């Protein structure tokens, strides 16, 4: 029996029950909510390890629920929604979702994703949730104080640089295009040049890399964008 609890937030009863059935068979402890208000109440009551969250709920948008949860918890959030356009996916990841699954979905895929998250939870290192460390504490990020340290030395990052770094750190090895980083970090209202991201990345590299011309953290994927490669988090 897995010692992991999951809150399923889905207003369509049949889908909610299907998800619950799949996860119950895997040995997870499941809790159900069918609207946003009860989701927030149940979250505080059952303190789940994973939240499966629909976006289109009858009372509160799933995106708003995600934002509320992120104010107080780093719990894993999996968006499960019919909104499959790129802008919705980018928005979901940008406000704090860890995974994004579109409807119609495969039950086997859902279980595989949840099992993958479950393994990460079980192997989670014994350190405060707000502390992210990489390469034997060569790089340390404190998400409570917004501090970034390189070999113990506090770095002077701008707010935008910090947002870019934290966004990429949360999804190691995921390749971000310039457009995605602009939407996530600078928002939809940004009307500047997408090459501005290149300047921010360049400045970040000068601060966190041993050799900014041969980066080991912020790696260029030519013709596409950038990814964070931090090695093992310890």
UniProtKB/TrEMBL annotation:
Q: Which CDD domains match?
A: REC_OmpR, trans_reg_C
Q: Where is the OmpR/PhoB-type domain?
A: 129-230
DNA-binding segment(s): 129-230
Q: State whether keyword Cytoplasm applies.
A: no
Q: Which GO terms describe its molecular function?
A: phosphorelay response regulator activity; transcription cis-regulatory region binding
Recorded hits in Pfam families, A to Z, give: Response_reg, Trans_reg_C
Any one cellular-component term (Gene Ontology): protein-DNA complex
Q: Which domain of life is it from?
A: Bacteria
All copies of the Response regulatory domain together span 5-118
Q: Which UniProt keywords apply?
A: DNA-binding, Phosphoprotein, Transcription, Transcription regulation, Two-component regulatory system
Record-linked Gene3D superfamilies: 3.40.50.2300, 6.10.250.690, Winged helix-like DNA-binding domain superfamily/Winged helix DNA-binding domain
Modified sites of kind 4-aspartylphosphate = 54
Listed transmembrane segments: none
Annotated GO biological processes are:
regulation of DNA-templated transcription
Job description of the protein: May play the central regulatory role in sporulation. It may be an element of the effector pathway responsible for the activation of sporulation genes in response to nutritional stress. Spo0A may act in concert with spo0H (a sigma factor) to control the expression of some genes that are critical to the sporulation process.
What name does this protein carry?
A: Stage 0 sporulation protein A homolog
* Taxonomy of the source species: Bacteria, Bacillati, Bacillota, Clostridia, Peptostreptococcales
